[in-house]
Amino acid sequence: MKQSASMSRQLDRALGGGLAESRLETGALRAPAVAPSKRRSSVGVPVLNAILEAIQDAQSILVTAHARPDGDAVGSVLACGMLLEQLGKQVEMAFSDRVPLIYRWLPCAQRIRHWQSVEGDFDLVILLECDGIERSRLTGLEGRRLINIDHHTSGQNFADLNWIDTDACAVAEQVFTLAYAADMRITPDMATCLYMAVLTDTGSFCYEGTDAHTFSLAHELVRLGARPGPIAQDVYFSNPMSKMLLLGAALGNLKRDGRVAWLWVTTSDMERSNAAEEDCEGIVNYAIGIAGVEVAVFLRELPNHRVRLSLRSKGEVNVAAVAESLGGGGHENASGCTLEGPLPVATEAILARLRALF
Ligand SMILES: [Mn+2]
Fold first, then answer.
1. What CATH code is assigned to 4-234?
2. C-alpha to C-alpha distances, 218 to 183, 196, 222, 342, nearest whole angstrom
3. Domains of the chain: which residue ranges?
4. Same topology between domain 4-234 and domain 241-355
5. What is the whole-number distance in angstroms between the Cα of residue 202 and the centre of ligand 1?
6. Phi, psi of 119 (to 5 degrees)
7. Can you list the alpha helix ranges (DSSP code H) found in the chain?
8. 8 Å CB contact between 315 and 326
9. Ligand 1: distance of its center to the CA of 23 in Å?
10. Residue 43 pLDDT
11. What are phi and psi of 293, to 5 degrees?
């Protein structure tokens, strides 16, 4: 591991002109230099140094992320785990929920444990995309040495070391930066996991904030061995039938009032479609896809009579703030929270909140 003297050079190589430089080294491409971006100077170098030192001092490390893991959580936990193994660490990766089917093809995905409680002694726990230990829904994290790496605006300084970079397009970008800072090689397997994370967390490079830097990161990951075609096949064209049946049920419940659209599924819709929780992923995007709709909400009735909400915005409304005011969190354009049921009450509650904004 490099000492701090070379840290800024490493970071610069990771996120700055180094991308163009590495292209020149390969001699294969002569693309123009990547435009500088504000986030390259905003990376928290001191905390990165501290994180690298903590990793260096640890022998056994657990890597986890939030419950109901999405593509960024799964891909970044895997890449981070592989990075730590390269550094000679004893690594466990765990989630409180199963890895969704569409991510189980990822390298090493079968190594991720499905735990309710942290098992074993760890010198260090790295939490990705959590605003507190509760977000992981793993018990037994209290009192352990924790590192928090997050890119959400709802990020909190709850751990011993906290690296929150809201300019990162995915937590995968932070894992990428960490690998470069540690002077470790990003293997094709790591690149595959990180590319999938960036692809899914930027909404296939569609969300606001996707810029030249996002594409240079993607470019670098492809150069390092990620294969966009097969990854897109696995993520977008390998859905179980249950997901399509559930989508049909949700679209049958689609409603609109001015610039707000919403749709929902009940527990009986879930049962009838033989759907799993992960089959709900992305349904909200069909509602935000309507012309003239600014905010969309997907509501899912939970077996405990509470209601899980996913919110999307085209940019006019900050749905992270809306979700945070209701105990949830996320990004300005994509967020979530859980409300008390029954479903019609939760629907009215969120609609009242959104109508007040227009
Ligand atoms: Mn993310």
1. 3.90.1640.10
2. 19, 10, 6, 43
3. 4-234, 241-355
4. no
5. 9
6. -105, 125
7. 7-15, 18-26, 38-42, 45-57, 71-86, 171-181, 188-201, 212-223, 228-236, 241-252, 267-272, 284-288, 319-324, 343-355
8. no
9. 27
10. 52
11. -85, 130
pLDDT of 4 = 38
Model pTM?
0.82
- Among 157, 155, 227, 169, which Cα is nearest to 197's? 169
Amino acid 284 reads: V
Q: CA–CA separation, 355 vs 358, rounded Å? A: 6
Average pLDDT rounded to a whole number, residues 77-94 = 98
CATH architecture label of 241-355: Roll (3.10)
Report the chain's terminal Cα–Cα distance, integer Å. 52
Q: Omega of the bond prior to 107 within 30 degrees of 0, cis?
A: no
Q: What is the dihedral of CA 319, 275, 255, 302, to 10 degrees?
A: -60
DSSP states of 276-344: -GGGGTTTHHHHHTSTT--EEEEEEE-TTSEEEEEEEESSSS-HHHHHHTTT-EE-SSEEEEEEES-HH
Mean pLDDT, rounded, for 204-228 = 95
Protein residues within 5 Å, CB atom, of ion ligand 1: 72, 170-171, 201
Under 8 Å between Cβ of 245 and 274: yes
Tell me how far the alpha carbon of residue 152 lies from the centroid of ligand 1, in angstroms: 7
